[in-house]
Write a structure and sequence with these properties.
Keywords: Membrane, Transmembrane, Transmembrane helix, Transport. This protein is mostly helical. The chain is built from seven helices and no strands. It starts with a helix and ends with a helix.
C-alpha cells in the first residue's frame, strides 16, 4: 500500500496502473535480490550454524509479521526491515542463550545503515522536491499530473 499510495492519492496514476506496476516491480525485486537477504542474514548471525536454524528463522519471521500486524492495527508506522533484522537477531540470541552468537561487526554495520538511510532519503527527497518546486512553480497541477503520468 505504501508503494502506491502517493501515486494514487495525487491522481498521478490510476489505481489499476499503480498496483500493476507495484506488483511487477515487487515480483522482480523478490526474484532478483535474494542474495541481499542471504548476506543480510549472515551479516547479523548465521542462524543455520545453530542446531535448530530453520526453527530460529521461522520464529524470527513470525515475530516480524506479528510486530508488523500489531503496528498496522494501531496505525503506527514501522519498518519491516527493522522488524525482521531485530526478530532474527532476537530469535538467534534466544536459541543460543548468548549474545555471542551475533556477528557484531556486521550487525553494527547494518544498524548504522538503518539509521543513516532515512536521513539520506530525507535529504535527497528534500533536494528533489526543491528542484521540482523551482522548475515547475508556475505550472498548473492538473496539466503537470497528466504529463508526469508518462514518465
Amino acid at each position: 500500500a505504501n508503494a502506491v499510495a502517493t501515486s494514487i492519492s495525487t491522481r498521478a496514476l490510476k489505481p489499476r496502473v499503480a498496483i500493476g506496476i507495484a506488483a511487477v516491480m515487487n515480483f522482480l525485486g523478490a526474484i532478483s535480490f535474494t542474495g541481499v537477504a542471504e548476506s543480510l542474514t549472515k551479516s547479523i548471525v548465521d542462524p543455520f550454524s545453530l542446531n535448530n536454524g530453520e526453527f530460529v528463522v521461522l520464529c524470527g519471521l513470525i515475530a516480524a509479521v506479528i510486530w508488523n500486524l500489531m503496528t498496522w492495527l494501531v496505525g503506527m508506522p514501522s519498518s519491516s526491515s527493522h522488524a525482521l533484522i531485530g526478530a532474527i537477531a532476537g530469535a538467534s540470541i534466544a536459541s543460543a542463550s548468548s549474545f555471542s552468537v551475533l556477528n557484531w561487526s556486521g550487525f553494527t554495520t547494518i544498524i548504522i545503515a538503518l539509521i543513516i538511510s532515512p536521513i539520506i532519503g530525507f535529504t535527497v527527497g528534500y533536494l528533489i522536491y526543491s528542484l521540482f518546486k523551482h522548475l515547475f512553480h508556475d505550472k498548473k497541477l492538473g496539466k503537470m499530473n497528466r504529463r508526469f503520468r508518462f514518465i
